[in-house]
Amino acid sequence: MKRISDKKKQEMGELLKNQNLLPVNNNDLFRFMKEKEVFEALLANGADPDYTDSYFKFPILSLAYSHGYYPAFKLLLEYGAHPNVPSTITAEKTDLLFDLFFSYVKNKKYVDVLAKHKVNFNVILPDTGETLLEWMLRYSPLATDAIKTILENGGDPNLPNKDGKTVFDLANNGEIRIIDSLMPLLDQLRK
C-alpha cells in the first residue's frame, strides 16, 4: 500500500472537496481514470483499488489496462489492488497476464509493475488448461525475455497443466521447444 504524508493526503482531500467528490464514490474512479491527480486523490481518500463496476463486471485494474491508462494501472497497484485479475477481452475471464504476454514487448511496463507487486505467474488458461509458462513456450518460444520474466518472478516450471504435465514433460515429449539459453534457468527450478 502506498504511503503518503498527512499533508499530501490533506491536499488531496481539498482537491476532492473543491470538485465535490466527497464522500468518495468508487464509480468516480472510472470518470477520472485519465486525470492522475484526481484519480490518486480518490484512492488516497478511500476509493477501493479492487473495485469492480456494476455495469462491466470487471475490476478497475483490468479496465485501466484495456483502456491504456498505465498511470492509473500503476497507481491502483500501489494502493493495493490485487494483481491477478480477469481480462476484459476474453469471455472466459482469463487472467490478464495472458493478454499482457500476448504482446509482451508492447506491454512490458505493465508486466514489470505487476511483478513488482507480486503477481502470481502460476496461472492457467481456462479453456485449454495450459499454464502461462507452457503457453509462452508453445506459442512464443523465441520470446526469451518474457519467459525469463515469468521464471525470475516466481513462475514454476514444475506446475502441471490440466493434463498433469509440466513444461519438462512437454519438452521431453516434443510437444514444446525450449530455447537453449533458457535451460540453465529452468534446470535451477527443476524439482
From TrEMBL:
InterPro entries: Ankyrin_rpt-contain_sf (IPR036770)
Top-level taxon of origin: Bacteria
Name this protein carries in UniProt: Uncharacterized protein
